[in-house]
Each structure stands twice: as C-alpha cells, then as structure tokens.
Amino acid sequence: MKSKIFIYLFFFAVLLILFQYMNEKSIFESQENRISILTKKKVEADSLNNLLEDRIADLNYFTLLGNDNAMTYLENLGMEADSVQTMVSEAIYEKNLIKGGNPLIPVEGMYGEMRINKLKFLNHRWILADFSDGSYWGEMIIEYFFDEKMQLDLTVISSVLYPN
What we know:
There is one protein chain. By secondary structure, the chain is an alpha+beta fold. The chain folds into 2 domains: 1-61; 68-161. It has 3 helices and 4 strands, in the order H-H-H-E-E-E-E. The longest helix is centred in the N-terminal third of the chain and has 60 residues, at 2-61. It is elongated.
C-alpha cells in the first residue's frame, strides 16, 4: 500500500512537473514573440527617425540657420544669424502697417491691401515671401543687404501673382 501511494505521488509529481513545463514553455514563447514584435517596431521607429532626420536636414539646407556659410558671413560682419533673421522679419512685417499696402509688394491688392504673410530665409541674402490681399496671393524673392553703415536695404528681385 505504501508503494502504491509513492507511485501515485510520483505520477502526480511527474504530471505537475509536465504541466509546469508546458505552461512555462507557452509563457516563454509568447514573451519571445512579444520581444520580436517590439524589436521590429523599434527598428522601424529607428529607420523612420533616420528618414525624418534626413528630411529635416534636406529642408534646413536652404535656411539661414541651416547654412554654415551664410552664418559665417554674418558673423564676420559682427552679427548673429538669429538676431538678423528677427530684425529683418520685423522690418518687413512693419511695412505691412503702412497705409496703402506693403511697398515691397509690386502689385496692388484688388480686395484690400496686399500684406506679407510668411517669410522663409534662404540664406544671408535672399528671402522667400508669401503675400495676399485675402483673395489673391503670390510669392516674391526679396534681397536683403547691410551696407557699410549696417543699414538694412530691401530689394524685390522677382514676384509672381497666382491666378484666382
């Protein structure tokens, strides 16, 4: 009788160990599966980040703050690129307040006064500007230059008015 109890205990222990093994194996496989999925997501996120960083570098190529040569030019004049960008932007936007429209814009507004809406500094010389009267809009390239007295000179190089 004692031997039968030991045999039953032995089989029960074997079944318990087998059950634990199968349970742990399924848990291990599910965790491995989750790890592989998360690793794939991490790789995809890293590649997406690299792609975005490359895209941002491409977009910043034609900007004042992304162009080392332009910033060096301004630093040689004793100016900081950030302050130049702020100063020139303010000078251009202040011209929007002039009665009759911004004098830099070479076209008259048909439904109001033409105003400059956005500026994009291309380098230490040129700005791409967007203008509109609320109905018609266009773009222009503005050249900015600091003379010997460090006075700002703004010249419109070219403009385009889009059809309505």
